[in-house]
Amino acid sequence: MVKGIYRQLSYLTHGELTLLFRILEKLSRSQDQDSLRKEISQDLLTLLNSDFLASYIWNPDRQVFEHVVYLNMSPDNLARYETYYQFHDPITPALQKRRRATLVCEVIPQKELEKTEFFNDFLMKDGLHHGINVYAYDGDLNIGDLRIWRAKNRPDFGKREAALLDIILPYFRNALRNVRNISMASESEKFWQHLLADTDTALFLFDDKGNLIFRNKNATSIQETLSDNDYKAFYNRVCLMAKGDLSVTQWGPYFLSVLTLLFPPHDSRPVTAVMAYQARPSKIDCYSLVSRWRLSSREAQICLLVCKGLTDQEIASVLGISFSTVRTHLKRIFTKLDVTTRSELIYVLIGEMVEISF
C-alpha cells in the first residue's frame, strides 16, 4: 500500500507538490480545530481538483457530527444535515469504519446512491455527486473528518486522490489530537481554578508519574511569599505528600492534605491533589463575648477596644460616652471576668484562642 501511495506521488507536478507540502505545514501549526480545517480547505480542493468540502467533528457524548467547516455548500442545507440527514445517511456509517481515504462508490454503487432520499434531497441540493471521505481516529475515537465532493459533470475520484488523502491523514489526525489535548487541559485548568476560587486553599496536582501538572493561583502566591529556600522545603514536603508520605502533614503555618481523584472533565487518568491552607486566626467579636461571658453589648464593645490598646479616654471618644461611664463599665467587666487589670482582661479574652509557647 505504501509503495502504491508513493507511486501516485511520482506523477505530481511541481505545483501539486507545493500545495501538498503547504497543507502539511499548515497542519503543523498550533490552532483551534475550526481554524486548522479552514486553513487547509481551499488548498485541499485545489490539490484534489474538487468542488465541495465539508468537515465535521464527531461528538461521542451526543453521538452526532457537529462544528462543520465547509466550502461551496449552502449553510441552510448543512443545517438540514445536522438536524435530519445525518440520522438518515446511508454512506457515512460505512465510510466512518474505514481508517483510510475511501471513495463513496466503494461502499455503495453510484446508481444505488442516486435512488436514496439522502442523495436527491440533500447531496443534489448543492450539486454534490462524486465523493471521497477520510476519518481521523485517536485510538478508537473518531475526532474529525474530511468529506470532498465533485459535481455531476466531473469524473469520479481515483487512486491518486485517495493516495494524497492518505498522506495527509496522519498530519490531520495529529493536528486534531493536539488541539483536543490542549482543549481538554484548558477545560481542566478552568475546572480546578473555579473549584477553589473562593478559598485560600493552594492546590497542587500531580499525575500518576509524580509530575506536577497544575497549580492554582493560591499555590503560586505561596512561592511569591516565601523565600527561595523556604519554598523549596515547602514544595519538597508537598511532593512527598503526593508520593504517599503522610508522616508530616504540616509545614510552617500550612496544613497539608492529599487525595487521589480522576482528572476532569473528560479524562479518566488518576491524579493526586495536595492541598495547603493556613488555619484562619480565631476572631472575637461582640456576639462571642456576650455569649461566652454574659456581657452587655456595651461591655463587649469596651472589651474589644481594650484589646485594641485604646485608653479609657479614647474609648469614651469612640463610643460617644463619658469617661466615668467607661470606668463604670470596666469595673463591671473586671468583676464578671474575675480580673483586676487590663492585661489580665486581655489575657482572659484571647488566652483560650491562641497557644502561647515559651
Describe the structure.
The chain is an alpha+beta fold and 358 residues long. It folds into three domains: 2-184, Beta-Lactamase; 196-278, Beta-Lactamase (2-Layer Sandwich), CATH 3.30.450; 286-351, Arc Repressor Mutant, subunit A (Orthogonal Bundle). The protein has helices at 2-9, 14-27, 33-47, 75-83, 92-96, 110-113, 117-122, 159-195, 217-225, 228-242, 286-293, 297-307, 312-319, 323-337, 342-351; strands at 52-59, 64-71, 102-103, 130-138, 141-150, 202-206, 212-215, 250-251, 254-262, 270-278. The radius of gyration is 35 Å and the shape is elongated.
Brief description of this entry?
This protein has 358 residues and is of the alpha+beta class. Helices cover 49% and strands 18% of the residues. It folds into three domains: 2-184, Transcription factor LuxR-like, autoinducer-binding domain (Beta-Lactamase); 196-278, 2-Layer Sandwich (Beta-Lactamase); 286-351, Arc Repressor Mutant, subunit A, CATH 1.10.10.
